[in-house]
UniProtKB/TrEMBL annotation:
<keyword id="KW-0408">Iron</keyword>
<dbReference type="InterPro" id="IPR023616">
    <property type="entry name" value="Cyt_c_oxase-like_su1_dom"/>
</dbReference>
<keyword id="KW-0186">Copper</keyword>
<keyword id="KW-0679">Respiratory chain</keyword>
<feature type="transmembrane region" description="Helical">
    <location>
        <begin position="169"/>
        <end position="190"/>
    </location>
</feature>
<keyword id="KW-0813">Transport</keyword>
<dbReference type="InterPro" id="IPR035973">
    <property type="entry name" value="Cyt_c_oxidase_su3-like_sf"/>
</dbReference>
<keyword id="KW-0472">Membrane</keyword>
<feature type="domain" description="Cytochrome oxidase subunit I profile">
    <location>
        <begin position="29"/>
        <end position="537"/>
    </location>
</feature>
<feature type="transmembrane region" description="Helical">
    <location>
        <begin position="474"/>
        <end position="499"/>
    </location>
</feature>
<feature type="transmembrane region" description="Helical">
    <location>
        <begin position="396"/>
        <end position="420"/>
    </location>
</feature>
<feature type="transmembrane region" description="Helical">
    <location>
        <begin position="818"/>
        <end position="840"/>
    </location>
</feature>
<dbReference type="InterPro" id="IPR036927">
    <property type="entry name" value="Cyt_c_oxase-like_su1_sf"/>
</dbReference>
<dbReference type="InterPro" id="IPR023615">
    <property type="entry name" value="Cyt_c_Oxase_su1_BS"/>
</dbReference>
<feature type="transmembrane region" description="Helical">
    <location>
        <begin position="613"/>
        <end position="630"/>
    </location>
</feature>
<dbReference type="InterPro" id="IPR000883">
    <property type="entry name" value="Cyt_C_Oxase_1"/>
</dbReference>
<feature type="transmembrane region" description="Helical">
    <location>
        <begin position="326"/>
        <end position="349"/>
    </location>
</feature>
Length: 843
């Protein structure tokens, strides 16, 4: 005999089954099509763990080689490859991807959303990360790994000093991996701003989301300079364009500027999400809100801003002017202020609360001790005279590990132990967890605290052996012993994590009595996170409503209808959290995997010097990406049923301000950072390079360049009134088609004139850096003009198919941003190449 309770339970199970039919993950080969953020986040973290173990093994080889003076365990060339790959793997393949993976997993759950806003972009980012990392690591197994240091300083990494493919593996592999990082950055920025729970205004966001928002914005702005530097150096090695060669007008210091424009912000890109873990866990284990929430948010924003003004902190010994040294020294010490605010907020939270010292808290306390020590040595290195004395010694190596390992690895393990029940539904071992912590803590300090001493005694970095009697014997032996103790501790932690899946005690719901929304999902979570989307009224929803999970499972809140077959979540006002539209999300797809695969084949073609094969693979990758974009917006596979329930807002593809506009804007921000880095290189070489050669006569036809810019301006102006009417719900298909076709033709003419200027000009890009930079700037504008034209032609076709019309005006507005960006770049390039030189005495 059925009862009302049994009927309610049956109804809930039926509703969950319906959601699983739409959101569920396939198995077998089709698992390559999964785009769900939970799976992608776990894949990021597991892959990051694999690369961490590989990098850790390389570290053990380095410490074994340095344990005894005169030891020949590794040959010099092999040692150079090993220590270069250790730094590269830990910085590029572990630290940033691991933090991004954790954020990809957590952010939608914390914000009360069902997924990230661009799931296929997350999947593309993961596959690019995996393939790029495998290509890079394979170089070591082939004996051709990079060996110029993880920072790849020129001219050591140039073709003259490293003639084989060693440096090419680094440049091409890292650029491939950076695509992943920037993709995840764009994804996280837009998701945090546009897909939160109803009522979750910015001042009610979990503090972790603030940290990830700033980290993601820093990735978007900070990674493109390194991408540009890698492209320029690879062009110099493969084609002979002399960007970093002094004799032909380049400058090797330009590489250092581009690298550290990325490199110093990356320290905070790694630190901020780790600090976000600290700020999230401390209130839970103290059972009270974080002290100074608004001050901490202000400190996060300030840290992200100041970090971009510190890159010369790493270049005090290269001969920069004293005024610049004083400025960057002061800026390097200034960044300690917002960091200090966060530390004081953590200490105050500990002070006013009653801390419970579970295993995650041990890692947090260890972090506070180690990171404060690393911060103190950082202030020491900000002082120019001290930096001159210890630059390129083991003191700098020790400082870097205290900041990065202490500032990232310890909070990461605290977070892993904290969220392990979320991943598995089981609790880890307390005994093994404590053993693992103490072994790592003791081993770490034994390794790197002693290394400060070694550095102060003058031991340089990047040497594969040393003579006895210099006072370095005992410290190096102690450091090597400490590194093996640390390795045993990490093995203990990994053993605990592996065993807990089989033998761990089953976790209760919200086992830590946490306050954030990720703990009201099932353990482990379902693919859709929440069967109904609750509103949020304060920063601690679980402390305010302990029974929230039961209410969500009963379907008491929003978006519980699933018979339309769409994956959907709320789209909100970024500032207030007011619901604005329903964002419908794409389902599982082969396109991300296929695109990443052909990009990987392009990289392999470049590495093997099969340039025609690389060109073919890149063209196929572009076609795959364009085919991917076809299944979007009002396409039946993207929105099989456009109806919504009474009282609900429209689908985002039926509005004029969907998340794609934000995604395009943030992507163009990254693109602009790359272009501004190129512009920086142009003006830097003009003012600094001693052999910068300015031709007496123009090297390109300035009239053709002007005509190209004018055509592009006409194209942008033509579509502006048409798109304005489209926003107002007007516009006939015939008008739209004629506009998009005409704009595409104008764009093609613009690109044709640019190509003519390139081919018909008197450019000698292999002879002078001046002409080489002009070629790169014009090719950059040419590529954007071609892409914008192709996308507008596709828009005309989509109007023909009925995917774009006055009821679905969304997509042309996204493409319009690319046209406007291309126009701005074209005119800046024209001013820089044609109008600027006469002011410096050139033509």
């Amino acid at each position: 005999m059925s009862t009302p309770h049994n009927e309610q339970v049956a109804a809930q199970e039926q509703m969950h089954d319906q959601f699983n039919d739409v959101w569920g993950n396939p198995r077998g080969w089709k698992s390559l099509t999964i785009v769900n953020h939970t799976t992608i986040g776990i894949r990021f973290m597991l892959t990051g763990l694999g690369f961490f173990l590989f990098g850790g093994l390389l570290a053990m080889l380095v410490r074994t080689q340095l344990a005894i003076p005169g030891y020949d365990f590794l040959e010099p060339d092999v040692y150079n490859q090993v220590f270069t790959m250790h730094g590269t793997v830990m910085m590029f393949l572990f630290a940033v991807p691991m933090m991004e993976g954790l954020a990809v997993y957590l952010i939608p759950k914390m914000l009360g959303a069902r997924d990230l806003v661009f799931p296929r972009l997350s999947a593309l980012g993961y596959w690019c990360y995996l393939f790029g990392g495998l290509i890079l690591c394979a170089s070591l197994l082939l004996g051709v790994a990079p060996k110029a240091g993880w920072f790849m300083y020129t001219p050591l990494s140039s073709a003259v000093h490293t003639p084989g493919p060693n440096s090419d593996f680094w440049l091409i592999g890292i650029t491939f991996v950076e695509i992943s990082a920037v993709s995840a950055g764009v994804e996280l920025v837009v998701s945090i701003l546009r897909t939160r729970a109803e009522g979750m205004s910015l001042n009610k966001m979990p503090i972790y989301a603030w940290y990830i928002l700033v980290m993601a914005m820093m990735i978007v702005v900070g990674f493109p300079p390194l991408i540009l530097g890698s492209i320029l150096l690879e062009l110099e090695r493969a084609v002979g364009l002399p960007f970093f060669e002094v004799a032909r007008g380049g400058d090797p210091i330009l590489w250092q500027h581009l690298f550290w424009l990325f490199g110093h912000p990356e320290v905070y890109i790694i630190f901020l999400p780790a600090a976000g873990i600290v700020s999230t866990l401390l209130p839970v284990f103290c059972q009270r809100p974080l002290v100074g929430y608004r001050w901490v948010v202000l400190a996060i924003l300030t840290t992200g801003f100041i970090s971009f003004g510190l890159w010369v902190h790493h270049m005090f010994t290269v001969g920069i002017p004293q005024l610049a040294q004083a400025f960057f020294s002061a800026a390097s010490m200034l960044v300690a202020i917002p960091t200090g605010i966060q530390v004081f907020a953590w200490i105050a939270t500990l002070w006013v609360g009653r801390p419970l010292y579970h295993v995650p808290m041990l890692w947090l306390v260890g972090f506070l001790v180690i990171f404060v020590c690393g911060g103190l040595t950082g202030v020491m290195l900000a002082l120019v005279p001290f930096d001159w004395q210890v630059h390129d010694t083991h003191f700098v190596v020790a400082h870097m590990h205290y900041v990065l390992v202490g500032g990232m690895f310890f909070p990461l393990l605290a977070g892993i132990y904290y969220w392990l029940p979320h991943f598995s539904g089981c609790m880890p071992s307390v005994r093994l967890g404590k053993w693992g912590f103490w072994l790592v803590f003791i081993g770490f300090n034994l390794t790197f605290l002693i290394m400060h001493w070694t550095g102060l005694m003058g031991m340089p970095r990047r040497i594969y052996t040393y003579q006895s009697g210099l006072g370095w014997d005992l410290p190096n032996l102690i450091s090597s012993i400490g590194s093996f103790i640390m390795a045993i501790g990490i093995a203990t932690v990994l053993l605990d994590i592996v065993l807990h899946f089989r033998f761990g005690q089953k976790a209760t719901n919200n086992p830590w009595n946490a306050d954030t929304l990720e703990w009201i999902t099932h353990l482990p979570p379902s693919p859709y996170n929440f069967v109904s989307l609750p509103p949020v009224r304060n920063r601690h929803p679980l402390w305010q409503e302990p029974d929230l999970q039961a209410r969500i499972d009963r379907g008491e809140f929003a978006l519980t209808v699933i018979d339309h077959g769409r994956r959907e979540t709320w789209g909100i006002e970024p500032l207030t959290g007011k619901v604005r539209e329903i964002i419908h999300l794409p389902g599982n797809s082969w396109w991300p995997f296929m695109a990443a695969l052909f990009i990987a084949l392009t990289c392999l073609g470049l590495l093997s010097k099969l340039y025609w094969g690389a060109l073919a693979a890149s063209l196929i990758a572009v076609l795959v990406l364009l085919r991917w974009s076809w299944e979007n917006g009002a396409h039946p596979l993207a929105a099989p049923d456009a109806r919504v329930q009474p009282g609900e807002p429209p689908l985002h593809s039926r509005t004029c301000d969907g998340p794609g506009l934000w995604g395009m804007g943030v992507t163009l921000l990254a693109n602009g950072a790359l272009y501004l880095s190129l512009l920086f290189g142009w003006f830097y070489l003009w003012t600094v390079s001693p052999n910068w050669l300015v031709p007496d006569d123009p090297v390109i036809d300035q009239r053709v360049l002007l005509a190209s810019a004018v055509l592009l301006s006409i194209a942008v102006l033509w579509q502006r009134p048409v798109l304005r009417r489209l926003r107002q719900g007007q516009g006939e298909p015939r008008t739209l088609i004629s506009c998009f076709v005409g704009v595409a033709l104008l764009g093609a003419l613009h690109a044709g004139l640019l190509l003519w200027a390139l081919l018909a000009g008197d450019l000698a890009p292999r002879a002078t850096a001046h002409d080489a930079v002009i070629v790169v700037m014009l090719v950059y504008s040419l590529a954007h003009g071609v892409l914008a034209s192709v996308l507008s032609a596709l828009q005309a076709l989509r109007v023909q198919y009925g995917y774009v019309c006055k009821r679905t005006p969304y997509e042309p507005l996204v493409v319009e941003q690319l046209w406007q960006y291309s126009l701005a770049v074209m005119w800046i390039t024209y001013c820089s190449v044609v109008l600027f030189p006469p002011t410096f005495g050139g033509v």
